[in-house]
Specification:
By secondary structure, this protein is of the alpha+beta class. The chain is 50% helix and 14% strand.
Amino acid sequence: MRRNSATHTTTALALGALVGLSLLAGCKSKDEAGEAAARVNGRKILRSEVDKYYLNQTTGAPQQPTGEQATSLRLSILRDLIDQEIMMQRAEKLGLLATDAEVDAKVTEFKAPYTQEEFEKRLKERNITRDDLRRDLRRNLTIQKVLNKEISSKITISDADVTAYWEEHKSEFNLIEPRYHLAQILVTTQPNPQVRNLKNSKAQSEAEAKKKIQEIMNRLESGEDFATVAMNYSEDPQTAGNGGDLGFAPESSLRTGEEPATRDAVLRLKPGEVSSIISIANPRTRQAWGYRIIKLLAKEPAGQRELGDPRVQQIIREQLRERREQLLKAAYYETVRNEARVENYLAEEILGSPGEK
């Protein structure tokens, strides 16, 4: 089982890169300066909506954000909401808004692992109502329909593409031992200037790291695409840009090179499954320096794989498709953003009072 196409849900409001902020000169009307945090092509995004998601992300946190940190979080949430509004308006033009039946089916799927009591408790813990859940699921389903129509459905991988890839990577399919195709999302406890994820998100302390990794796990449990979450939030400079993909690891390297918690977690996973949160500690000081979540993308048994093997062709086609999808989606996001007129009042207010927190 490979990485799925991006499925954004519930509290996750991430679509990739940051929206360019259109800053308007002059005074704003009472309506603009009051209830609206931003407008996208004239359509309002309410401050109350920003506040709702802010509360959702900070409720239960060991340390509440204050001052500039709190303002930065609100600005980040608003950027995500702007991203979603741009895509929802695109969906309206294309006639691709999710139907009630599609939303009902997704709610049923979301509730499946829980009893009714557990489900209600989970909603309460996340400070969302059933209506909030349905709204977010409708948005996420709609955005996925747009991406499927505009990007995924237009990608074709020819037999010639597969053969060319095979000729260049034939040695990769000669396995002397089982190997595991892994991806990870990493959050560290210390500032790292090399972090370059799409959201420019970086924990600055152990408390922040612990809070951030739990928020990431919540996103994954809500059905968000692992690769998209990794690109947005992972703090591993080497893998964040490619969806957290660590490539293939031979079984021997897991048993000798990985710390026990990661090794044990990986060996228990089935393809497509995601681990629980793994604490990573310095082996000498035993002090936590980060947290990670691992996904087992695939497990390959030992032996030579030939081009005629359907599994080889499937792997190659999926890898080529994923690469093209990621590139085309990034270009598509930039295109629809360029076409949108964004008025970000919150950003203007922050720029207008640089000396204030």
